[in-house]
Amino acid sequence: MIRTATAVWNGSGKEGKGIVSTQSGVLSNTQYSFVSRFENGIGTNPEELVAAAHAGCFAMKLSFVLGAAGFTPEALHVKCELEFKDGSITKSHLIVEGKIENINKDQFNTAVKDAEANCPISKLLNTAISSEAILL
Fold first, then answer.
1. 86 and 57 in contact (C-beta within 8 Å)?
2. Element (H or E) spanning 65, and its range?
3. Residue 61 is inside which H or E element, if any?
4. 30-46 per-position pLDDT tens digit
5. Domain residue spans of the chain
6. Gap between the Cα atoms of 42 and 24, Å rounded
7. In the predicted model, what is the mean pLDDT of the chain?
8. The domain defined by 46-135 carries CATH number 3.30.70.260
9. Which pTM does this prediction carry?
10. CA dist 77 to 30, 80, 133, Å?
11. Percentage of the chain with pLDDT > 70?
């Protein structure tokens, strides 16, 4: 399976503008710029997109891990805090709140650590990855 996305950039790094699009069309000519990346401008940025990918990938992997252990989550809410510092992604921290019947904290923590280490985006990132588990 191959998934694709495209980016087009016009102009200099600071004054230019770009658009990103995804194969699925979920993102279609979505704007990004220096201001949306390094300040608070309108549009997305690569780090935000990586954070969304990591949160989504981790949530799905955690659901699979829980399922293999005999649990079906009612809800998993994942927030990814991606640190971008000195031109590098230096950390990805995942905060997960899970609502799962008949699971104890140790079982949940074990599943979270498995998903943290084994979701495909975690494996892709060459940075420190950590997680927090909150059982509701």
1. no
2. helix 46-68
3. helix 46-68
4. 999 999 999 988 999 99
5. 5-38, 46-135
6. 22
7. 96
8. no
9. 0.92
10. 25, 10, 10
11. 100
How many Å separate Cα 30 from the centre of its chain?
A: 18
Residues 119 and 41: their CA atoms lie apart, in Å, by 31
Q: Which residues contact 53 (CB under 8 A, 6 or more apart)?
A: 121
Residue 107 contacts residue 69 (beta carbons within 8 Å): yes
Q: How far is CA 40 from CA 35, 45, 67, 80, 125, in A?
A: 6, 10, 39, 18, 25
pLDDT tens track for 45-69: 999 999 999 999 999 999 999 999 9
Neighbours of 133 (CB within 10 A): 19
Name the residue type at position 105. Answer: K
Concatenated DSSP letters for 103-130? --HHHHHHHHHHHHHHSHHHHH--SEEE
CA dist., res. 12 & res. 95, Å (int): 36
Hunting for tokens 């799905």 — which residue is that?
60
Rounded to whole angstroms, the Cα distance separating 66 from 58 reads 12
Q: Pick from 104, 9, 111, 97: which is nearest to 64 by CA?
A: 111
Both tokens of 45, joined, read 């940025």
Q: Which residue has the tokens 């981790």?
A: 58
